């Protein structure tokens, strides 16, 4: 609190969150996660904006958003629900790296991820299924 980053986020970024497009929102969240910024008001505003424009996100973007929100300890319940409802699509369309990211995310939140493991068919899955 009180740093230049905090002041910039408060005065310049927060007021614009409600106008951000999906790719801008994802980029901002990536930066916030990289800086490990714990600014609850900003995360709440970003979460609300994601809810408003959820259909505009590609599946890989949803995985990335959920991962970044999780890293910032801001529970991505809506995103996880959306991803869970699209598991078959994810298994059929996402690249292996994104599927691995999704599997780790699901395991971390205690969600079933066996179908992702089946799709990946790697030796990592059996070892990681017990990990939360």
Please tell me about this protein's structure.
The structure is a single chain. With 132 residues, this protein is an all-alpha fold. It folds into two domains: 1-76, no CATH class; 86-132, no CATH class. 70% of the residues lie in helices and 0% in strands. The protein is built from nine helices and no strands. It has helices at residues 4-13, 22-35, 40-53, 59-71, 77-85, 87-93, 96-108, 114-120, 124-128. The protein is elongated. The chain starts with a helix and ends with a helix. The mean pLDDT is 86.
Task: Please give a handful of descriptors for the protein shown.
single chain, 132 residues, mainly alpha, 2 domains, 9 helices, 70% helix
Please count the helical segments: 9
User: Regions with pLDDT < 50 over 5+ consecutive residues?
Assistant: none
Main pleated-sheet profile: none
Average of the residue pLDDT scores: 86
Beta-strand percentage?
Answer: under 5%
From the alpha-carbon coordinates, what is the Rg to the nearest angstrom? 16 Å
Please state the overall shape, judged from the principal axes of the Cα atoms: elongated
Going by helix content, strand content and strand pairing, the class is mainly alpha
Taken together, the total number of domains comes to: 2
User: What is the count of β-strands?
Assistant: 0
Order of helices and strands: HHHHHHHHH
Chain-wise SSE layout:
Blueprint: H1 4-13, H2 22-35, H3 40-53, H4 59-71, H5 77-85, H6 87-93, H7 96-108, H8 114-120, H9 124-128
């Amino acid at each position: 609190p009180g740093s230049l980053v905090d002041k910039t986020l408060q005065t310049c970024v927060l007021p614009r969150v409600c106008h951000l497009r999906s790719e801008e929102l994802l980029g901002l969240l990536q930066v916030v996660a990289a800086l490990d910024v714990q600014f609850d008001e900003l995360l709440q505003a970003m979460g609300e904006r994601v809810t408003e424009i959820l259909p505009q996100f590609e599946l890989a973007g949803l995985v990335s958003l959920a991962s970044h929100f999780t890293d910032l300890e801001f529970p991505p319940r809506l995103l996880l629900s959306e991803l869970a409802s699209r598991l078959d699509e994810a298994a059929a369309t996402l690249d292996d790296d994104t599927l691995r990211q999704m599997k780790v995310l699901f395991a971390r939140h205690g969600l079933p991820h066996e179908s992702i493991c089946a799709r990946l068919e790697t030796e990592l899955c059996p070892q990681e299924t017990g990990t939360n």
